[in-house]
């Protein structure tokens, strides 16, 4: 997160709009949640829940100023026809719970608790794999790892404990490994539909690596939102209804 200088609100809105338009151009449906005055971090919608197979685990935020967001996201999902289970301990949605094929990769260390990992497994019916984050620059799992498709992921090894790195190597021996430079540029805060990867253009090495492995990078600049600590994935809640 950058704390030097302010955010250009008009530019931030234009960049966010470009992200939404990009998803539509790729053939995806985009819904939005009505913003609540006084809750500016709602733009980081990924933290509001995790959904899988039509089941929704809501959020309980670590930071006091974000806690009211949980009810707003819960209301949106209920209005859309979903039943929502609210977690008993801190659980920051897709920020730390990343569906990846046969597993839900579950981050802990800074925000989401181990108890929330168990709640996710019980509700979603998919094994959770706990991964410990150790570098405070990568306080959510979605800043250090993203799913490329149902079989593979991309991650920055330095964000994880030694044991978690070993787990990732065992589960994903062919994973793409990002550099620290690309990770700090929010390159791993990306969204993939299995072919197209919406990615920060500042992560130049990762963009080249994705192309070399047959993916189609779709660069979208969210540099103004980077100043608040979020990127493409942070702004994107993936609704998996089936």
Topology:
Elements: H1 9-25, E1 50-52, E2 55-57, H2 69-79, E3 84-85, E4 97-100, E5 103-108, H3 114-124, E6 128-132, E7 145-147, E8 153-155, H4 162-171, E9 176-177, H5 180-184, E10 191-192, E11 196-199, H6 204-212, E12 216-219, H7 223-226
Parallel strand pairs: 2-3, 5-6, 8-9, 11-12
Antiparallel strand pairs: 1-2, 4-5, 7-8, 10-11
CATH architecture of the domain at 33-138: 5-stranded Propeller
Order of helices and strands: HEEHEEEHEEEHEHEEHEH
The rounded distance between the terminal residues' Cα atoms is 35 Å
Number of strands: 12
CATH domain class name of the domain at 33-138 = Alpha Beta
**Strand line-up across the major sheet:** 1-2-3
Stated plainly, the CATH topology of the domain at 33-138 is called: L-arginine/glycine Amidinotransferase, Chain A
Q: CATH superfamily assignment of the domain at 33-138?
A: L-arginine/glycine Amidinotransferase, Chain A
Largest sheet: 3 strands, mixed
Structural class: alpha/beta
Shape: globular
Classify the beta-strand content into a percent band: 15-25%
* Helix content bin: 25-40%
- Please give the count of helices: 7
């Amino acid at each position: 997160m950058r704390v030097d200088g302010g955010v250009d609100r008009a530019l931030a809105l234009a960049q966010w709009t470009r992200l939404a338009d990009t998803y539509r151009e790729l053939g995806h449906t985009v819904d939005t949640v009505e913003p609540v005055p006084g809750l500016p971090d709602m733009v980081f919608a990924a933290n509001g829940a995790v959904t899988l197979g039509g089941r929704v685990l809501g959020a309980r935020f670590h930071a006091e100023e974000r806690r009211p967001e949980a009810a707003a996201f819960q209301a949106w999902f209920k209005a859309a026809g979903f039943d929502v289970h609210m977690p008993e301990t801190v659980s920051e949605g897709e920020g730390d719970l990343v569906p990846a094929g046969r597993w839900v990769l579950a981050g802990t260390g800074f925000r989401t608790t181990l108890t929330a990992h168990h709640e996710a497994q019980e509700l979603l019916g998919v094994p959770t794999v706990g991964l410990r984050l150790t570098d405070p620059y990568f306080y959510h799992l979605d800043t250090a790892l993203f799913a490329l498709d149902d079989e593979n992921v991309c991650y920055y090894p330095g964000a994880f404990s030694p044991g978690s790195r070993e787990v990732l190597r065992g589960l994903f021996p062919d994973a793409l490994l990002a550099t620290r430079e690309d990770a700090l540029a929010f390159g791993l805060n990306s969204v993939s539909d299995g072919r197209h990867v919406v990615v920060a253009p500042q992560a130049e090495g990762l963009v080249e690596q994705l192309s070399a492995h047959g993916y189609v990078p779709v660069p979208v600049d969210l540099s103004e939102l980077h100043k608040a600590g979020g990127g493409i994935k942070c702004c994107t809640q993936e609704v998996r209804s089936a």
